[in-house]
Amino acid sequence: MRIGILGLGRIGALHAETLSGLDAVESLVVTDPFADAAKAAAERFGAEVVDSPEALLAAGVDGIVVAAATDAHPALILAGVEAGIPVFCEKPVARTMSEGVEVLKAVQGKDVPIQIGYNRRFDTGFVNARAAVQSGELGTLHTVRSTTLDPAPPPAAYIAASGGIFRDCSVHDFDIIRWVTGREVTEVYAVGGNRGADFIKEAGDADTTGAILTLDDGTIAVVSNSRHNARGYDVRMEIHGFKDSIAVGLEDKLPLRSVEPGVTFPAGTPHDFFMDRFTEAYRAELTAFTEVVAGTRPSPCTIEDALEAGWIADACTLSLHEHRPVTIEEVRQA
């Protein structure tokens, strides 16, 4: 098949590399406002370069991958759907939830699949965790712990446009908690602080946060996030039930150092970047998209899924600012 890529920044370039290595993909068509980025992709992957999204949609592509700036996501999703072309779009659907809801309304009833990029759903550890929950082998769940710690903050310009740590970073934890447990979040309480880069505080954001999520069956989920984790990129999950407990991310590249005597775990070189931690997950995610394009599977992460994670992020943002518990229904109805 022939796949178009809109946007060739860090994640778009990774997707181009991944797609070029998939057996199902015969050719790539790319476009980016920065001509040098498109030229580099053409030289590296043998991609065809076009000068606009309109030209890409008219280039005979079977599916499109939207990796452009967040502000462009709604228009590009809608353009793909109007052209009848399956869409993969990196999260978020839109910069604000109201815009995201408008996108959802605009595509409802259209027979064009849309997949939103939440790559943890394709990581082997998280896949196995979900299977363990679904099988009942853990028994009734009572506690989930989800962690995302970045090794260093992104640039100040990125932070200023990110929508805040809950919408940019924690939202991955929120999505994977929903996906692994199969439950919905009903209420949140969030706290945060600034112990590092001044530009994060100046942007009105926090660099380290914690959130308590109450799920609809009473399970408690604890989410921990930070922009400052000097040892590396740390993504983990614990799921505790009345019969058993399991963990995702306890492997030799875990960026933690034990101080217990005689303990050598973890023994590997720590993960230092999200692309390192999730290389295989990204490959599985885009392989899934080729199956969506081929019509052999439904979207594994819909706009509805992405919006549910977004509501949790909005609730946590409000909770942080107002120092109180916030229900999901409160922000959904705001």
- Number of helical elements: 13
Low-confidence parts, pLDDT < 50 over ≥5 residues?
A: none
CATH superfamily of the largest domain: Dihydrodipicolinate Reductase, domain 2
Radius of gyration: 20 Å
The main pleated sheet reads as: 7 strands, mixed
The largest sheet has its strands arranged as: 12-11-7-10-9-8-13
Proportion of residues in helical segments: 40-55%
Percent of residues in β-strands: 15-25%
- In CATH, the architecture of the largest domain is 2-Layer Sandwich
Estimated structural class? alpha/beta
EC number: 1.1.1.18
Enzyme class: oxidoreductase
Family: Belongs to the Gfo/Idh/MocA family.
Domain Gfo/Idh/MocA-like oxidoreductase N-terminal: 1-118
In short:
The protein is of the alpha/beta class and 334 residues long. It has helices spanning 10-20, 35-45, 53-57, 73-82, 97-107, 124-135, 156-161, 165-181, 198-202, 274-277, 279-294, 303-322, 328-333, and strands at 2-6, 27-31, 48-49, 63-66, 87-90, 114-117, 141-149, 185-193, 208-215, 220-226, 234-241, 245-248, 326-327. It has two domains: 2-112, Rossmann fold (3-Layer(aba) Sandwich); 121-274 and 308-333, Dihydrodipicolinate Reductase, domain 2, CATH 3.30.360.10.
